[in-house]
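Bumping my old thread because nobody answered last time. Still need a sequence for this structure:
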C-alpha cells in the first residue's frame, strides 16, 4: 500500500498539482484503499 500511495504522490507532483491538492486526493484515495483492505485483514493475526 505504501508503494502505491508513494507512486500516486509522484504522479500528482509531476502533473503539477499543489501540495494541498495532493493531500486532498491522497486522503480520499487512502481512505478508500484501506477501506477495501480492512474486511480482508480484520481478523489477520488474531489469537
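Sorry it took so long. Here it is:
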Amino acid at each position: 500500500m505504501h508503494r502505491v500511495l508513494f507512486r500516486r504522490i509522484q504522479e500528482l507532483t509531476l502533473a503539477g498539482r499543489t501540495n494541498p491538492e495532493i493531500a486532498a486526493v491522497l486522503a480520499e484515495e487512502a481512505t478508500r484503499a484501506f477501506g477495501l483492505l480492512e474486511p480482508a485483514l480484520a481478523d489477520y493475526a488474531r489469537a
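The mean pLDDT is 91. Let me know if any region looks off to you.
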